[in-house]
Amino acid sequence: MHQEVLVTRKHEQPRAQPKPGFRPEVQGLRALAVLMVVTYHIWFGRVSGGVDIFLLISAFLLTLSFVRKLEAGRALDLGRYWLHMFKRLLPAVVVVLLGILAATALFVPRSRWSEILSQTWSSLFYFQNWALAANSVDYYATDQSIASPLQHFWSLSVQGQVFILWPLLFALAAVIAKAAKIRIRRAVLLVFGSVFVASLTFSIYETYTNQVHAYFDTRTRLWEFAFGTLLVLALPYLKLPQPVRVAAGWIGLAAMLSGGFILDVQGQFPGYVALWPLVAAALIILAGQTESPFGADRLLTWKPLIRLGDMSYALYLWHWPVLITYLIWRGREEVGPVGGTAIIGLSLVLAYLTTRFVERPLRSLAWAEKKKRRAAVVIAVCVALVATPVAAWQGGLKLEADRLAANADENNPGAAALLPGYDGNHTDDPATYLPSLTSLASEAVHWRQPCSGASKPKSDVLAEGCGESFSENRGTEKNILIVGDSHSLQWLVPLQTIGDERGWRVTTLFKGGCSFAVAGQNLRSPDCDEWNRLALEYILERDPDVVVTVGTRATSGPDAGPEEVVTGLAPALKKLTDYGIQTVAIRDNPRFNDSPIECVEANGSGNDLCNPERSDHLAPEAPFVPLKEAAPDVGLIDLSDFICKADSCPAVIGNVFVYLDTNHITKSYLESLTFAFEQQWLHATGW
Is 407 helix (H, G, I), strand (E, B) or coil? Predict the structure, then answer.
């Protein structure tokens, strides 16, 4: 993963004369860690903990370098360090990014292009982890074929950010040491000990409250780097007998290799559970070179493993996009022994070529090392090599999307095509379908602005999912509150449009994966209970004119069980009704096992696979009875006849894609059925 992780390649001198401080067992440890990451991803569909070991090694090697500088009284020269570091990192990144762009054009469906191009920017500029955190990406999805070929750049982004932050913290330690007249190691201990405690505490908290976000959050990972720094400070005081070091090496190696199977890495990291791989790696480093024929270092210093460590950075970069491209190309969700072996073999070849012909030549380029501006030129060229094609590609896609949108009134009636007696003149033409397959990123529903003032919840748990929109026309203002998961949130689109015309304020209270229900009755994820409790308190405090939520949960197929009322919703609506708040429940839209929009790409909109039976996804009648029994005055909205035909639920209606993914409606289609939503809304509310 990076060159001071995967970076400080001190062994690149002839092995007979290694540079002082080179530890071959650490290089072997790096090689085993990357093999863990690769094999767990390809064959086991699990997260191994290998990345956490990379983070520790990264900080360990960086700390060795900086502590030596500080103790020798040498200037840190941070500008030169950063230029030197990113001059080493970016060339391999650029080669991989260009390879991913080429593979995207050849093998990836057009509906994925926009996402990949956007992630190319975040990968190139080292903020991919924040992009993934913001999108709440499920990095552990069993079906990896729907993952991004750039998703693995999250850890490189975290490292890139730390390679900027860590030297600043060492500079701070130097200032403290000078001002307090203490030894530099004591100042380093003070600074990085504080980082360790603060970050670990925050990591435990955020992992418990929002684990998916925590996994990608730089702040929850800083303690892992700090662990590596503190390990450097502790090593001089940990002089163990040879037999103990031999045992420590093998215990650490066994724990390291087994952690991904024993622990729920995907659901518990990076909280305190991440200590498992870190302590395992620390034991191996503590064991060091035992000079025993039975030591684990005999394995870790094996020449083939050392050579693999040399190209571990490139191997990490290549293995994931090769895997994802293979799954997309073959239309599979997982790989077998033969396919997995081929993926590893190709990744190794690409890693060797990248290391041999890109990394090493540019790392040892004397011309660029002599002056800072020359290193800056290398970095600028690297950025331009990726930025130019990405910007041109995105520009072309925007022109295409604008052209389609300009003719939407004529070509794209959407839900209006299902009106009895509709006599529009549009013809079914895939070339005119909206939204453009390359502009799907703009189809996700989001509020206009976060809640502020009196609307802003006191609880941060609620505040992050609270948004609002309101019309400049305040004469007939009504206060509407949409509460629940993404299936409730999507109805913000027609409500926002109608509200702009009628002067309504629309507030959203959203949490992904959490249907609105009485706390304790609908635990779709561990933190839904607390969120629902706080949401109900907020609603009662705000006293809106009407509360809106999705009332049923549709089925994803004939084997997924019947459509039914959301568990725990009926008593929640009763509480609101008893308090005098009007409620509206909307019937859920169909859900599918596979993306309808990708079905159309592969098979055409007329294929039966893209027009599944309505009865496989929706009940003959909306199962609203339990809601009516609990809250007789609840208003009901059922737009199934404007989402599905009488016997099927098409992927395309009126030249508009109905679904954005397997279970959410596109913004374009929601806009097209606003007329039907308004009619049912006025009837449901009596307005």
Answer: coil
Q: If we measure between CA atoms, which residue out of 591, 485, 504, 573 comes closest to residue 545?
A: 504
Distances in Å between the Cα of 653 and the Cα atoms of 240, 415, 610, 618, 649 are: 72, 6, 11, 18, 9
End residue of a domain, out of 346, 365, 381: 381
Asked if 38 and 264 touch (Cβ cutoff 8 Å), the reply is no
Distances (CA, A) of 623 to 586, 662, 679: 11, 22, 21
Q: How many degrees, rounded to 5, is the angle at CA 269 between CA 267 and CA 271?
A: 125
Residues 511/686, Cβ–Cβ less than 8 Å: no
Structural domain of residue 367, as residue ranges? 23-381
Q: Which pLDDT score is estimated for 167?
A: 97
SS3 category, 371: coil
What is the torsional sign of CA 650, 653, 657, 661? negative
Report the C-alpha gap between 553 and 565 in whole angstroms. Answer: 6
Half-sphere exposure of 687 (CA within 13 A, CB side): 22
Per residue in 81-90, pLDDT tens? 999 999 999 9
- Residue 379 dihedral angles phi and psi, to the nearest 5°: -60, -45
Residue 149 is encoded by which pair of tokens? Answer: 């070929």
- CB atoms under 10 Å from CB of 391, counted, come to 12
Q: Which residues of 444-453 are buried (b: 16+ CB within 10 A; e: fewer)?
A: ebebeeebee
Whether residue 246 is found in the same domain as residue 377:
yes
d(CA 563, CA 591): 10
pLDDT of residue 651: 97
Same domain, yes or no, for 362 and 460? no
CA contacts within 13 A on the Cβ side of 322: 24
- The CATH number linked to 582 is 3.40.50
Same domain, 614 and 492: yes
Q: Is residue 523 part of a domain?
A: yes
- b/e per residue, 216-227, with b = 16+ CB within 10 A? bbbebbbbbbbb
Distance CA 428, CA 414 (A): 11
Q: What whole-number distance in Å separates Cα of residue 396 and Cα of residue 389?
A: 11
Residue 264 is predicted with a pLDDT of 74
The predicted pLDDT at position 524 comes to: 58
What 537-540 contacts at long range (C-beta under 8 Å, 24+ apart), as own/partner pairs, is 538/457, 538/459, 538/462, 538/509, 539/481, 539/483, 539/509, 539/576, 539/581, 540/576, 540/579, 540/581
* SS3 (DSSP) at 665: strand
Q: Are 570 and 626 in contact (CB under 8 A)?
A: yes
pLDDT of residue 144: 47
Q: Number of structural domains, the chain?
A: 2
In 40-183, where does DSSP find H-type helix? Answer: 50-71, 78-107, 113-124, 128-135, 153-180
Question: Is 9 within a domain?
Answer: no
Q: What angle do CA 340, 268, 536 make, to 5 degrees?
A: 125
Residues of the chain with pLDDT under 70: 1-22, 136-146, 266, 472-476, 522-526
Q: Which two tokens stand for residue 417?
A: 């095509």
- Residue pair 22/10 in contact (Cβ under 8 Å)? The answer is yes
Phi-psi region of 580 (alpha: psi -120 to 50; beta: other; left: phi over 0): left
Report pLDDT for 12. 40
- Measured distance CA(104)–CA(113) in Å, rounded: 7
pTM for this entry: 0.84
